[in-house]
Every structure is written in C-alpha cells, then in structure tokens.
Amino acid sequence: MNCFVCNGTMRPFMEKSFGLEHLDACEYVRCEDCGLVIAKTLYDMPHEQWAALNRECHAAYQNTDALAVDPNWLPRLKAQAAVLNELILLGVIAESARAVDYGAGDGKLADMCKPWLLKYDEYMARPNAGYLTELEPASFGFVITCSVFEHLLGAGDVEKIFALLKDDGIAAIHTLVCEEVPRDPNWFYLQPVHATFWTNAAMKKIFARYKFKACAYHVEARLWLLFKDAEKISRLKNSAWIIAEDFIDYWKVKPYRK
Please, which of 93, 176, 183, 193 could form a disulfide with 87 given CB 3.0 to 4.6 Å? Predict the structure, then answer.
C-alpha cells in the first residue's frame, strides 16, 4: 500500500498485542519517505468493528481516573482553554466566528470556552449537551481538534476536518508529532484506537496540501495553529508563541513528550 500523505511505499514496521474483544493484535506499517506510521489492522477493519472498538475503549477510559492515565491531561486542557479565550481577546479568532471542537469527547474544553466554542463528536456525543449532529463544509472560521489526529483513518478523515474551514479560517491541532516514530511495541502512544502516527515531514506535507500560509505553536498548551490568512498571525505578540511560515517541527528530540 502507499502512504496517503506522500504516496511513498508503506513497509511492515512492528506489531503489538492488545488482547481486546474487538482488537487482538495490531500490525503497523511505515512510509519509507515521510515516516508516517499507520495501524494497518485498524485501517482494514470494517466500520462496525472500528465503531465497536471505539465504544469499548472510550467506555473503559471513562470508568478510570483520567489523571492517573494522563496526569498532564487536565493542566493541558486548562492551558488550551486559556489560550483559546486569549485568541478571542486578541482578535485572532473573531467573536462572531463560528467555531467547533471537532472530536470534543466529553466536551470539557468547549465547556471551558462557553458560549463561543461548539461541540461535535461522532462516538461520544451527548444529545442533551448541545452537540452538533451535522457539519457543513466551509462554514467555520475556527476548528480545533484535540487528541483527534491520531484517530484518523486516512486522507478522507483529514479532508473532513479541513474542509470545514472558510477561506480565511484557522485550524488548531493538539496531537503528538514525532521526528521519527519509535519502533517500540511498548511506546506509550500505541493505544488501541490510535490509528495514525504523525511525523514532522508528514505534517509539513499536509500543511502545504491544504494551502496554509502560517503556523504558530504554543508550548505549554501543546497546540498548533494553522492559518489560511497570514495576516491574522501578526496579532500574536505573546512570547509564548513560536511563529513560522511553515509547519513548526518543534518536537525533534527523543523521548517524545507525553
């Protein structure tokens, strides 16, 4: 098979046993050009099984202490909410802009940013909590995905997200991006529903494919901003932001952060 990012050849990389009802073992393959790694077993899985695996894993996660699983989760979430609210105050995100948290999970981030950030999640929607059920392409000035890009299953899923943006829209991404994905079955990021593992090289190609003009990265919030309109980035005068015209390949040194 070929890489959906750069069309390079995908080669066998490693395997990991999970022993779950909907996922016993998983095979991973790696692009020999951009280094993108995907969970081939998940990509080949029927949609019904993939949805069941998501429900199985999300139910298990919600019945555990989230801070015990990821002690950085709540501090990072609070930092991201603070950053987003600051972007409103700076005029980087217009108060009138339609904005959505795509893959909002239990909605904590959007709740911290009420009322301007809407919620959407395919697997964890709360019907009584104001979640959107349909998303119209090219209708959002701001789209954020937190811990979503590692769950995507190829070019179609990436397109669904970026197609939501207006011509001058901003995308915000929180995920793990490596210089090189470790060949280690015990790597903490090999979770049952993590399907795509991004490298700096792969992200740079996606950045160019969708014609983003500028990028900003906030270290504390672990958050990238991708700008369709480069003028907006000039409003970021806070030293907490790293700014560039291309995707910012910040995480280059092992071990990669959690």
Answer: 93
| 3-state SS assignment for residue 152 | coil
Q: What is the pTM of this model?
A: 0.93
Half-sphere exposure of residue 248: CA atoms within 13 angstroms, side-chain side: 21
Give the Cα separation of 141 and 107 in Å (integer).
19
In this structure, are strands 223-227 and 165-174 parallel, antiparallel, or unpaired? antiparallel
In 3D, which of 163, 205, 173 has the Cα closest to residue 83?
173
103 Cβ contact partners less than 8 Å away, ≥ 6 residues apart: 120, 121, 122, 145, 146, 147, 148, 151
pLDDT digit string (tens) for the chain, length 258 residues: 999 999 999 999 999 999 999 999 999 999 999 999 999 999 999 999 999 998 888 765 544 455 445 667 889 999 999 999 999 999 999 989 999 999 998 899 999 998 999 999 987 766 667 899 899 999 999 999 999 999 999 999 999 999 999 999 999 999 999 999 999 999 999 999 999 999 999 999 999 999 999 999 999 999 999 999 999 998 887 678 999 999 999 988 765 655
159's tokens: 């397109």
